[in-house]
Amino acid sequence: MNKKGLLFVISGPAGTGKGTVVKHLLETGEFFFSVSATTRAPRDGEVHAINYYFITKEEFEKRIAAGEMLEYAQYVGNYYGTPKSAVEEALDAGKNVILEIETQGALQIRKIMPEAILILILAPDIETLEARLVGRGTESADIVAKRMAEARREVTLIDKYDYVVINEDGKSEEAAKDILGIAKAEKMRASRNTELKEKFI
Ligand code: 5GP
């Protein structure tokens, strides 16, 4: 039987650059990325079923009612959620899975899958965060303000996470390396390797 994969939950307020960090992690080929569903409109260049499953509010609510979401949350006026079956299949196949989700969803995962590894990515400080968010230019001033308010709230949840990784300006590859280090250590955690006992008896 395959050993189950590890579930990495990566959160970070808007503007931390977590998308770039996750991109580096996926380039290693060591992780399965869970594509979320959302009711928000696609940004320029975003592709259905690659970046998100872009669905309507009605469809999203139907999927919640059908129990198809592993977790979901409302964030700045839209639904975001993790389709359950893809994640379960990947974990059962022994793949290490990344969920890139906000904090409410991460805390739901903590409850239902306590073995998940929760990582919070932060910018070095709030000014850098805001500069990145404004500089991205993908959102209106109103949405930027709402995302900044969310960012402040999300940072207060730091102690609910297992690890914090700071994404310094221009150093997203180093942040990704930090996460690879976490993944390596987590694989070696004694409690995840108890089957080794049998080899020595
Ligand atoms: P964005 O609109 O910038 O793509 O994402 C907004 C926030 O929603 C980010 O913090 C992102 O991590 C989070 N998010 C993306 N997918 C999911 C999901 O499936 N569940 C939850 N709870 N949050 C998600």
Key phrases:
201 residues, alpha/beta, 5-stranded parallel β-sheet, 8 helices, globular, binds guanosine-5'-monophosphate
Main sheet: strand order: 2-7-1-8-9
Shape: globular
Low-confidence stretches: none
| SSE series | EHEEEHEEHEHEHHEHH
What small-molecule ligands were found? guanosine-5'-monophosphate
β-strand amount: 15-25%
Helix content: 40-55%
Written description of the protein model:
- The chain has 201 residues and is α/β, with parallel strands linked by helices.
- The protein has helices at residues 18-27, 57-65, 84-92, 103-112, 126-136, 141-155, 172-187, 196-199, and strands at residues 7-11, 31-33, 36-38, 52-54, 69-75, 78-83, 96-100, 117-122, 163-166.
- The protein has a five-stranded parallel sheet, with helices on both faces. The chain has a four-stranded mixed sheet with strand order 4-3-6-5.
- The longest helix is centred in the C-terminal third of the chain and has 16 residues, at 172-187.
- The protein starts with 6 loop residues before the first strand and ends with a helix.
- The structure holds guanosine-5'-monophosphate.
- The site of guanosine-5'-monophosphate (5GP) has 15 residues, from strand 5, strand 6 and helix 4.
- Guanosine-5'-monophosphate is lined by residues 14, 36, 40, 71-73, 75, 80-82, 100-102, 104-105.
